[in-house]
Design goal:
Layout (H helix, E strand, L loop, with lengths): L15 H14 L4 E3 L7 H4 L8 H5 L4 H9 L21 H10 L8 H13 L11 H12 L6 H7 L2 E5 L2 E2 L5 H9 L4 E3 L2 E2 L1 H4 L6 H12 L6 H17 L4 E6 L9 H12 L5 H22 L2 E6 L1 E2 L4 H7 L7 E2 L9 H7 L7 E3 L6 H10 L5 E3 L9 H15 L17 H21 L5 H19 L3
Parallel strand pairs: 1-2, 2-4, 3-5, 6-7, 7-10, 10-11
Antiparallel strand pairs: 8-9
Length: 471
Amino acid sequence: MTKLNLPPERFFSPDPTTRRLALELYELIASLPIISPHGHVDPSLFADPNASFGSPADLFIIPDHYVTRMLYSQGIPLESLGIPRIDGGAVECDHRKIWRLLSENFFLFRGTPSGIWLAHELNDVFGIDEKPSAVNADRLYDFITDKLTTPEFSPRNLFESFNIEVLCTTDLASDTLDQHKVIKASGWKGQIRPTFRPDAVVNFDTLNWHANLDKLSTASGIEVVNYVAFIRALEQRREFFKSMGATATDHAALAPATDELTPLEAETIFQRALKHQSTPDDTARFTAHMLMEMARMSIEDGLVMQLHPGSLRNHNGMIFQRFGLDRGCDIPLQTEYTRSLLPLLNKYGNDTRLTLILFTLDESSYSRELAPLAGHYPTLKLGPPWWFYDSLNGLARYFDQVMETAGLYNTVGFNDDTRAFCSIPARHDVWRRACANWVSGLVARHIVDMEDAQDMMRELAVGLTKRAYKL
């Protein structure tokens, strides 16, 4: 049996002085509550007090495209991992077999963030101190299954034991938020807040855009037959989301281009889209215009605006056609920000009523564009390393490339951006350890003193996030 290796000083510098300081700083904030301002956990998990995570495969594998993409990269079909097919084709239904596949291939995650998160989940959440393997797969499956049937491992109880203060979901503009209503009405004290994400109706090239627009009409009670009605419907939905506790919006775009159309141009382009006549240029221009409109709406209603461009979605056409969205096939693009954001920042960048949080999948833009922009414009904040860069090395590069120019207080702490609920404490723990490692290096080099370092740690763990997201 091979033991999982999780010593208390893990991930810290091998330099003895820095390592000692890092452990001291980490222990200061390790038990602070988790603020999770952006993620994709299904709110229905918390609507039913007796809800269950299901099987170990349901919990660790099927919803987590970080896990399934690594296994797929080694030739393991998604069907054998229980991923449902759009056409209803046969997939593996025996969750024990799916768990065995992960256990037999656990070595694939060596040195990866997913490997770190999985080890933390197994050890800290389930009390397992051995690495999954072909030898122990069935025994671990039975052990985890038994745990998941106990009240202590219900989603609500784990939420509380993880010390999560607030968790924000990501919800379509047309979502009725029924699960959120049930949670609020239940009297449970856990804070689950929605986040307004309008991409499915803003971006013309979204699959089923016309059907999505019909859903927006139904949800808002406003028949969207023109651009003016479209704007009114979005404003109505934002107000509804706010009434349900939302503090933020979330926007994806292929590029962060911003531009302002005239009312006539916007209407003309929107009418072409309604008639199935829009062009790729229409799509790009309208998305750029709607980012301007969303900034304007955020100034008016106070919702924080998140923007994460630069991902070419569904790169693997076969996987998209067979399994649909969010299957680990999205690939980063080189992304330009300085010119792209100029129209938006020239119009709204000096208005302190707007908070615009930027994420990037193009690390080369950190020191060249994003840190200088965030270090100047009052509206602009930098989100943490995201997606492929939510890793020890990615976090270290972020601190190195961003902080000196942008300044700590122009960043927003951490978000886990996950569908895998039990990985939330693991991801936040890695962030807090990486922060301790960075700040301890500043202390060791006499750049900041210990009093400042302690305050910086509290800000990085909780304070920056709470203020930026108004939580």
